[in-house]
Structure to design on (236 residues):
C-alpha cells in the first residue's frame, strides 16, 4: 500500500502546480542560453545537480520518521533563509502550500497530522511568537514533500529519489511547452538521464542541512530574473 502512495505523490494528476514553473528555463531560453535539445539536456543536468546539493538535504531531514512538528518548522525556516532569490522562494511556497492542501483530502490516514501542518503555516501570518513552533512555518515544497513521505511511512531514500524525479520531469515538461523539444524527445532525455539522476542521489543522499549548498549560481540568477521578462508562460 505504501508504494502506491509513492506513485501518487509523483503522479502528474496530483495538481500541486509543479507544471507552472520552469526552474529558470524560460529565462535561460529568452537569454539565448538554451535553444535546442543539447542545451536543454545540459540545463536539466544542472538543475538535477543543484536540486541534489541544495534541496535533497532538506527532503532527507524532513522525511525522517523521528521528525517532530518543531523540527520541520525549523527546517522550513532554514530553507527559507537558504533560498535567497525571491522567485525560487515564491515557487517553493506555492507548490508546498498546494501539496499540503491536497494531502489533507487525498490521504485521510494522516489527516490530523496534515491539519496540524496547515495550522502551523497559517500561524505564520499572525503576530510573532517566541518559540519556533508558535511562530509557524512558511510551507516550502521540499520540506512538505519530505514530511508527507515520512508521515505515510515511506523511507527517506525513496522520498529523495522521488524529489529528484519530479525535478527532472518538471524541467523537461517545461522544455516541451516552450517548444524547445518535442514530447518524444523529452521522454528520451528523461530516460537517458535516469542513470545520472541516480548518481546524483548517491552523491547527495542522506546529508544533513548543514551540507546543503548551491552548485549553479547562474541558474539561481536566471530564475531570479524571471519576473523581469517582458512576456512569460511560467510563474518561475
Amino acid at each position: 500500500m505504501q508504494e502506491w502512495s509513492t506513485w501518487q505523490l509523483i503522479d502528474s494528476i496530483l495538481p500541486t502546480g509543479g507544471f507552472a514553473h520552469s526552474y529558470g528555463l524560460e529565462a535561460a531560453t529568452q537569454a539565448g542560453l538554451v535553444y535546442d535539445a543539447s542545451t536543454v539536456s545540459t540545463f536539466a543536468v544542472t538543475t538535477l545537480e543543484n536540486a541534489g546539493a541544495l534541496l535533497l538535504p532538506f527532503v532527507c531531514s524532513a522525511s525522517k520518521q523521528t521528525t517532530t512538528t518543531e523540527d520541520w518548522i525549523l527546517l522550513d525556516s532554514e530553507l527559507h533563509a537558504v533560498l535567497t532569490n525571491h522567485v525560487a522562494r515564491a515557487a517553493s511556497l506555492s507548490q508546498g502550500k498546494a501539496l499540503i492542501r491536497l494531502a489533507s483530502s487525498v490521504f485521510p490516514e494522516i489527516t490530523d497530522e496534515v491539519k496540524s501542518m496547515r495550522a502551523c503555516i497559517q500561524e505564520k501570518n499572525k503576530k510573532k511568537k517566541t518559540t519556533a513552533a508558535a511562530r509557524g512555518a512558511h510551507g516550502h515544497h521540499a520540506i512538505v514533500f519530505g514530511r508527507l513521505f515520512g508521515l505515510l511511512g515511506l523511507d527517506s531514500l525513496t522520498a529523495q529519489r522521488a524529489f529528484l524525479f519530479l525535478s527532472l520531469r518538471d524541467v523537461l515538461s517545461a522544455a516541451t511547452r516552450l517548444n524547445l523539444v518535442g514530447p518524444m524527445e523529452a521522454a528520451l532525455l528523461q530516460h537517458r538521464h535516469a542513470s545520472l539522476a541516480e548518481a546524483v542521489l548517491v552523491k547527495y543522499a542522506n546529508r544533513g542541512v548543514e551540507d546543503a549548498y548551491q552548485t549553479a549560481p547562474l541558474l539561481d540568477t536566471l530564475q531570479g530574473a524571471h519576473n523581469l521578462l517582458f512576456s512569460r508562460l511560467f510563474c518561475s
Notes: The chain has a mean pLDDT of 88. The CA atoms of residues 16 and 125 lie 22 Å apart.
